[in-house]
């Protein structure tokens, strides 16, 4: 009886872990093959499951991709937004935290491959582009824009267009991600993307200083 109960408990734990196991497998397959060439059978094989098991959790490949984007990227944006609501320190520190967190998505793992897939395959899959535009980009820019407005209102940043400033915050991060996922293998030696991102943050904060503030 004890063995049977232990086996049942392991099965339940395994069942709860399966969605994340499927998403982990999907990330590696999407990064390797792209969206169009990936099949549910490929994801199932990478996860060590049958295709039928995946359909118990996801309706199809599009549902897997969207769930993966929400879990891999959307959760980090939500974390930044939550921190901004309760952060009591300077906006400079808050913006540094936000951009370092976003930069971490680019400098580690395969998660930026999801954005690269959108850029490469949006013409053939406009629904994915629409989803990414409003589920990820819009929320990310709104969060950064809100941080910049906070800094302006507190006199920590000079007056500027928050929407433009938010895009300036993100642009070098996207360059780092595209370089890392496309050109890095051609570099004669590994490029220090983390230092690049920190240099970007320092230059950005200098440019955001109020007029007349000490350098």
Topology:
Elements: H1 2-37, H2 40-47, H3 51-54, H4 61-86, H5 91-107, H6 112-121, H7 126-153, H8 162-183, H9 193-208
Helix pairs in contact: 1-2, 1-4, 1-6, 4-5, 4-7, 5-7, 5-8, 5-9, 6-7, 7-8, 8-9
Written description of the protein model:
- This protein is mainly α and 215 residues long.
- The protein folds into two domains: 1-58, Orthogonal Bundle (Arc Repressor Mutant, subunit A); 61-208, Tetracycline Repressor, domain 2 (Orthogonal Bundle).
- It has nine helices and no strands.
- The protein has helices spanning 2-37, 40-47, 51-54, 61-86, 91-107, 112-121, 126-153, 162-183, 193-208.
- The model is unreliable at 4-11 (pLDDT under 50).
Question: What does this entry show, briefly?
Answer:
By secondary structure, the chain is mainly α. 78% of the residues lie in helices and 0% in strands. It is elongated and about 65 Å long.
Feature tags:
215 residues, mainly alpha, Arc Repressor Mutant, subunit A, Tetracycline Repressor, domain 2, elongated
